[in-house]
């Protein structure tokens, strides 16, 4: 007969084996739709996908702006040439820089740009995004995900489209240029991860490329393809595919998903520090706590946020963070 301790251990191991990247692979793989087939469905919701005409006009405006600044221009851009080679101006024109599960477009209501992503209707990603975008969750000031403009479901095809504001600047190509900008990124990121963990969601692919800015000191995590929302209080996972691989995942252990996020967040902060050159003396011990090889010794995301505040958020800097 199993002791209570052994029973708990067996239960945890069973949960661990159930939570893996191999689970439900038929609904969690990337979806590459025939965008032409859903063009009018998306348009009926007030969102127009980019056509060859749109792309050519975008390049023309860009070149005119460069010319007005006295810059030389070249009209051999692959994106422009693709638009020119379309069969007609009304033909859809995918962005050459995006994977086939993403498409750009314009909102009919106000002409603002958006990015739309196709996902399986029953995927973990769609479950997480739908939850984070629901009211009152989306209004929480700690929720730093890109605003979702609409969720368009096509149940007959087990398909859903996530329509998001276009935040085009990647953190690795447009890092902040001041210490306060750097610390602002760190705090917004820690807030969002602590917020997600409070709601039993783990991101599980935190990295520099998965962080965008809206160019107004707003930063957000993106790409919830590997994210999960858990029912269990203390979930465990294994077989994880992630950009920043913590030691316990490399060892093949049954892992605490939230401590994986903490480790990946430490790596994110380290890499952004290197990108920006912002390396205050208090930063290294803070990062090292998050990168402890033993996940049990790492702080939780909420603890990391509290440590950050007590270390960096001085009275003199208060207005910088609240601005």
Write up what this structure looks like:
The protein is an alpha+beta fold and 323 residues long. It has a domain at 169-322: Transferase(Phosphotransferase), domain 1. 40% of the residues lie in helices and 13% in strands. The chain has 12 helices and 10 strands. The protein has helices at 4-18, 25-28, 35-43, 52-68, 78-84, 124-132, 179-198, 247-250, 257-276, 283-290, 301-312, 318-322, and strands at 47-49, 102-107, 113-120, 148-154, 159-165, 169-170, 201-202, 211-213, 219-221, 228-229. It has a 5-stranded antiparallel β-sheet with strand order 1-2-3-5-4, with helices on both faces. It is globular. The termini are far apart. Residues 1-18 and 315-323 have low confidence and may be disordered. InterPro entries: Kinase-like_dom_sf, Prot_kinase_dom. Residues 67-312 form the Protein kinase domain. One of its GO terms (molecular function) is protein kinase activity. This is Protein kinase domain-containing protein.
Overall SS class:
alpha+beta
**CATH structural class of the domain at 169-322:** Mainly Alpha
First-to-last CA distance? 61 Å
Strand order of the largest sheet: 1-2-3-5-4
Give the CATH topology of the domain at 169-322.
Transferase(Phosphotransferase), domain 1
Domain Protein kinase: 67-312
InterPro entries: Kinase-like_dom_sf, Prot_kinase_dom
GO molecular function: ATP binding; protein kinase activity
Protein name: Protein kinase domain-containing protein
